[in-house]
Amino acid sequence: MTSARQEILARIRAARPDGPVPVPRDYRTGPTGVPDRSPPDGALLDLLVDRLVDYRATVRRCGSREVPEALTDLLGEVPTVVVPPGAPAEWLSAYLGRIRRDGDPEPLTVADLDTPGVAVVTGCAVAIAQTGTLLLDAAPDQGRRLLSLVPDHHLCVVRADRVVDGVPEALARLAAPQRPITLVSGPSATSDIELNRVEGVHGPRRLDVLVVSG
To answer: For 106-151, how does the pLDDT look when each residue is reduced to its tens digit (9 = 90+)?
Structure first.
């Protein structure tokens, strides 16, 4: 007598192809052209901003000389700001609160970063306009993954010349692909079975993005 298990396995073997199965590889696996670092056109930046806002991120655009004032305005009454080791000092030159630089003199702990009223300011390796995604690759201006995942408020500075159209272009732009990569698409959020959205469960509850041109 043939058991149900044997019958099911026999059907699977009969349906399985005898030879290799061709897999289509006509999807795009790289940039459409040679990637350069010239500022993207306005439409690309507009698309990025639109996607970020749709994810409930706060977005502001400014010129390079306006960064200190723009960051200070976005931080508002935040009493303490954490920055990676390589964050430019001029970013927070107008900020009057406490600044803690990771690794100076010791690496900050989870308890340090999880303290109420702490925000983190980082740079960005590359931003994808199509998906509204920010890629952080642990470069000196972005720091350890811990910095952007623990604090409740993340403010990310994105240079306009680091905005690309899609994922293949973004991967081609990474200076060191072997480094750990954090992908950020809006504030941390999740939903239960009744689709009740809850923010801040697995990361920052608030995401501010400063897009810098020029």
So the answer is: 999 999 999 999 999 999 999 999 999 999 999 999 999 999 999 9
Nearest to 51 by CA among 173, 134, 158, 156: 134
Give me 120's structure tokens: 């983190």
Taking each continuous run of H as one helix and of E as one strand, the counts in the chain are: 6, 12
* Residue 212, CA atoms < 13 Å, CB-side half-sphere: 19
* Residue with tokens 């970063």, as numbered in its chain: 113
62 beta partners: 212
Q: Distance (Å, rounded) from C-alpha 147 to C-alpha 122?
A: 8
| Backbone angles phi and psi of 169, in degrees to 5 | -65, -40
The residue among 126, 127, 121, 122 whose CA lies nearest residue 51 is 127
Contact status, residue 70 vs residue 209, Cβ threshold 8 Å? no
Distance CA 54, CA 38 (A): 26
Q: Are 108 and 102 in contact (CB under 8 A)?
A: yes
pLDDT band at 37; cut points 50, 70, 90:
very low
Measured from the Cβ of residue 113, the count of other Cβ atoms closer than 10 Å reads 20
